[in-house]
UniProtKB/TrEMBL annotation:
It comes from the Bacteria. The keyword Transport does not apply. Transmembrane segments: none annotated. Residues 28-111 form the Flagellar assembly protein T N-terminal domain. Residues 331-405 form the Flagellar assembly protein T C-terminal domain. Keywords: Cell projection, Cilium, Flagellum. Residues 124-286 form the Flagellar assembly protein T middle domain. This is Flagellar assembly T-like protein.
Length: 407
């Protein structure tokens, strides 16, 4: 039984991040235990599963209670109340073991969250779009150990899949798109105008509201690796190292979220973990391979990716839905969002002018000005919609690339 469970775990590690979900939720890993008897093995398994689900809910509550969010420079603590936690759903068993009369079941489950905003409820939410871009290495040579250079693009792929577990987020895998000019000086408060112009074109095509990027600051092993003369005693000692000094490896990531409409840095956060890396220093393991996920380092990284996804959802779920104006004619306005984004006839969206200012260094700064008028949606198609204003668009000087916002 244990060998079968171990094999299933390895398969789950390869496919875990690709599983679809159904709601805005935190993905939590938890373990439950119960007595196991040969007379009624199903009862123990069910009890262990139920306890794992209860543990997942408890861990989500603990995780949320320690979450901190900054808005307008003011630190808000516990913006999500523990009583707002919803049900546990989309339960996936990733390990099951029996030992000494006890059965242990490990699961990953979605714990639905209900924040005080419309977009926290899938049945009423507008779907937000974001592009997960390239994660450059600040020290590329550190990826030589294990041949992990593909992490720069592969991390975006895995994070985009994890984010798509939420039905209210459309995460585009844009791992081939590098928006970080110099990893050593990232992040920038605002993306450069030329970069933003290119990205806005991509954002229009994919209806992206946010750009997720970051820099992998470290993949360094705790023990420096380099050429040396063979030493059998040293090699045996390192293989039997009981304090793990020679096996530990760091993963340090700085995550950035930019607003795709203005290029403004909206959020940044650092993630740091270390775990065992037991592969030979010269083995061509590769990022995302079965051999990589079997490493303790790979398994811990899976949890970090899930934590990043959770944090992004908490940051963006209650942010207003926005869409670009693509065309105007008299009182009629077309926007770059449609029925697949949750829009329907009768919805009312506030209309904003997007103005560009330049500072003394000729760096652009963007301002959104509320026109105090709204657009009422009259027709929708999957990727676009149109509606009417209460005044002529020329009166308000509404143009292409102005925006609408659902508050």
């Amino acid at each position: 039984m244990k060998h079968i469970a171990t094999a299933l775990l390895h398969v789950a590690l390869f496919t875990l991040l690709l599983l679809p979900g159904r709601a805005v939720a935190l993905a939590i890993e938890a373990t439950g235990q119960a007595p196991h008897t040969a007379e009624d093995p199903g009862l123990g398994r069910q009890q262990a599963l139920q306890r794992a689900m209860a543990q997942a809910s408890s861990q989500a509550a603990s995780w949320l209670s320690s979450t901190r969010q900054a808005r307008d420079g003011i630190l808000e603590i516990d913006t999500l109340r523990l009583r707002s936690l919803g049900k546990v759903s989309n339960v996936r068993i990733i390990d099951e073991q029996i030992s000494r009369g006890q059965i242990s079941v490990t699961i990953i489950a979605d714990v639905d969250i209900a924040q005080g905003c419309k977009d926290s409820h899938p049945e009423t939410a507008y779907r937000k779009s974001l592009a997960v871009t390239h994660f450059p290495l600040e020290q590329p040579q550190e990826a030589n150990n294990g041949y992990l250079h593909e992490i720069q693009q592969g991390l975006a792929t895995l994070l985009a899949y994890e984010l798509r577990q939420s039905s209210t987020f459309d995460a585009l895998d844009a791992g081939s798109l590098n928006i970080i000019g110099n990893p050593g000086t990232a992040p920038v408060r605002m993306l450069p105008e030329g970069t933003l112009t290119t990205l806005l074109h991509s954002s229009e095509q994919h209806q992206v509201q946010y750009l997720v990027s970051g820099v992998i600051r470290s993949l360094a092993p705790h023990q420096a690796i380099g050429p040396r003369d063979p030493n059998i005693l040293v090699d045996l000692y390192r293989q039997a190292d009981v304090v793990d000094r020679y096996h530990k490896r760091d993963f340090v990531l700085d995550l950035f979220i930019h607003d795709a409409l203005t290029g403004t840095l909206q959020h940044q956060q650092r993630y740091h973990m270390n775990a065992d890396w037991n592969a030979d220093a010269h083995a061509k393991v590769g990022f995302g391979t079965p051999a990589f996920w079997q490493q303790p380092f790979g398994q811990e990284l899976r949890s970090v990716i899930r934590a990043i996804s959770n944090d992004i959802q908490l940051q963006l779920t209650c942010e207003p839905f926005t869409a670009r104006i693509t065309r105007t004619r008299n009182k009629e306005v077309w926007i770059s969002a449609g029925s697949i984004d949750g829009l329907k006839p009768g919805d009312r969206l506030s209309v904003y002018r997007r103005l560009t200012h330049y500072d003394s260094q000729m760096r652009p700064e963007y301002e959104l000005v509320n026109t105090e008028h709204s657009l009422t949606i009259t027709r929708t198609q999957p990727n676009l919609a149109s509606g009417t204003l209460d005044v002529d668009s020329e009166t308000l000087n509404i143009q292409q690339d102005d925006i609408v916002i659902a508050h």
